[in-house]
Write a structure and sequence with these properties.
Helix 3 packs across helix 4. This protein has a single domain, classed as Alpha/Beta hydrolase fold, catalytic domain (Rossmann fold). By secondary structure, it is α/β, with parallel strands linked by helices. The N and C termini lie far apart (37 Å). It is globular.
Length: 284
Amino acid sequence: MRRGLRALFVLMLGCAGWLVQARAQPAAVTFSSPDGTPLNPWLFRPAQPSRATAVALHGCGGLYATTGPRKGQLNARHQAMADMLLAEGYNVLFPDSLTPRGESEICTQKIGQRRIAQAQRRADALAALAWVAAQPWADPARLALLGWSHGGSAVLGATDNRHADVQLQAVRPAVAIAFYPGCSDALKGGYQPVTRLVMLVGALDDWTPPGPCMALAKQVDAGITVYPDSYHDFDNAVGTVRVRMDVPNGVNPGQGVHVGPNPQARDHANASVRALLRETVGRP
């Protein structure tokens, strides 16, 4: 079933490719996390060969859309990022930390009850960076790591020198970009960045609040942009702001969390990502 869904996804993207010039057919690649889990990533490569690569880490909702016309495909946020980075000439790798471990999403699970925690996400991110660095078409010095929400927290974990696996990792990204990560653990634990860190957060976020990230940025001299009038998921390419009552881990338990786009913040954040990549990993 999984193989069939992946084949269908590739076919659908191939058929739609003529609609969006930047959209390329992804390759299904395989490598494993240190715990033996096959991560089944999707690799996008631009028409013109590039040695610069972004590894992109999904949030607690997983890599794929679970409802609507995009069901089974990359969700709109991930597809929009792939399209943008391809248009800029970068390779893009999307590892999947959830479905190989039997989960489609973990947003509705209480943090203490999740089987997939930041230890697994950190290991997956490090494995993805190492895999890219070993490819003949890639330059290990021209890697970027970015992620959203739970994946943004994984960005923090994979660039935190307090962890033994990070200390042993020979490959380190030139820049780490985290969209609305949970920063409380990194702040309390004494996060030690191994690379340049930039965080993009929403001022009104009541799921992963901006306060701990603002304090963390000050503590480690990281870059941070706090977008006014913006909630969690402010960079999504589709939808409107809504309240999710099925999320138990927000600032106000039992009251749900706000999620949804702010187009102005999204455009500014995307421009910031492009500028950061040009500055740190260079133009392809």
